[in-house]
Amino acid sequence: MREVMLRMKRRSFLKLAAATGAAAAIAPRLASAKIEYPDAPQGHSGVMPDSNLGHKWIPSVCLQCHGGCGIIGKVKDGELIKIEGNPYHHNSHDYVIPKGTEAKPGDIDFEQERGALCPKGASGIYTLYNPRRLLHPVKRAGPRGSRRWKRITWEQAYDEIVNGGNLFGEGHVDGLAAIRSDAPIGPEDSDYMDEAPPSGYGPKKNQYRWERGRNEQGVVTNVLHKNYGTINKGTHWTICEGSMVHYMVYMNGTFAAPDMKNATYAIFAGSNIYDASFPAQTQARYASKWFKRRPGTKFVYLGPRLCKAAGTGHAEWIPIKTGTDPAFGLGMIRYFIENNLYKADMIARPNPDAAAAGGYP
User: Fold this and answer.
1) Which of 16, 183, 280, 343 has its CA 20 to 30 A from that of 287?
2) What is the pLDDT along the chain (361 residues), one digit of tens a residue?
3) Could you say which DSSP state residue 314 is in?
């Protein structure tokens, strides 16, 4: 240490001494300081971006994932050049207005309070201008599985989808108009009648299956699925979060989000809240603002990889082996049962009416 001090220049020593003194003065304040959570900013007079700069801001909603965050697009000369989070949207900014009023342009100072947006949302420009983005219908141009396609007009697509025909040189194919019938599906329609239930496959219109994503296009679903009359549909939820959605919707009657504001113990099983989740920046903000800074809370990440959620100083990482998540969950359930850590009275109530009678919401 003496040799280090001897080699240290006078200027460096003075800088180090000043920094040490400042740290010593601040440390007691930091140790005794109470954590205060600032209220969400109330509506106030602010400034909008200057429209004289040759660009304008267009509000919209991000569809890069299912988060549906508010965005504003910076447009110049008819071209989208930037996407930011809309500070008036609750996913992107903690903005609050008095109940019964509505947000108005100018309530927020864009220079001081910008909305948050995750990298996937910001990359929406690439989605829009991707040179491989399909802007027209395409039709199979070879045998099934050949991966050969050709461009067709919208008029041709409408006609072939509705009226059918010998579309691929492989024989006649019925269109939607022909199969929209209440007559039962028979052997002429299906090669699998021997596998049908006793009541059959239902009317012929059930041969049409509406396949959708997360259903941001709800109006289209009403027209092409419900109004058509088929019972067959496929959704995004059939392959993503199906177990969670079925549990919440069919057992609780609602789709609930994590209550970061009031939780005291949170387990993230394979959910890297600082890299993914949806809405990404919203969940990360809530975890940091309401949960991880509140004394007495416990933040646990369950997964085989040391990710950002597991690597933060406040988190506990449980590095389970890949694929053992169900066993871990069943082990927790067994522990709850063996130690009577569950509400037997609540579990014994089989429906919402019985739960309400017992005082459960």
Assistant:
1) 343
2) 444 444 445 555 444 444 444 444 333 333 333 444 344 444 443 444 555 567 888 889 998 887 889 999 999 888 999 999 988 888 888 766 666 666 666 666 655 667 888 888 999 999 999 999 999 999 999 999 999 999 999 999 999 999 999 999 999 999 999 999 999 999 988 999 999 999 999 999 999 988 776 656 567 777 777 788 888 887 776 677 777 777 777 766 766 677 777 888 888 888 888 887 778 888 888 887 777 677 788 889 999 998 888 887 678 899 999 989 889 999 999 999 999 999 888 888 888 788 888 888 7
3) T
What does 132-197 look like in DSSP terms, one character per residue?
Answer: T---S-EEE-SSTTS--EEE--HHHHHHHHHHEES-SSSS-EE-HHHH---SBP-TTT-S-GGGS-
List the structure tokens of 329: 């969950």
- What's the predicted TM-score (pTM) here? 0.65
Q: Which residues does 337 contact at the CB level (< 8 Å), separation at least 6?
A: none
Domains in the chain, ordered, with CATH?
51-129 (2.20.25.90), 138-211 (no CATH), 265-357 (no CATH)
98 cis-preceded (ω within 30 degrees of 0): no
Question: Are the CB atoms for 279 and 313 separated by under 8 Å?
Answer: no
Measure CA 241 to chain center.
Answer: 11
Q: Using the 8-state DSSP alphabet, how is residue 251 labeled?
A: I
- Tokens 């059930």: give the residue: 206
Note whether 43 and 107 are within 8 A (CB): yes
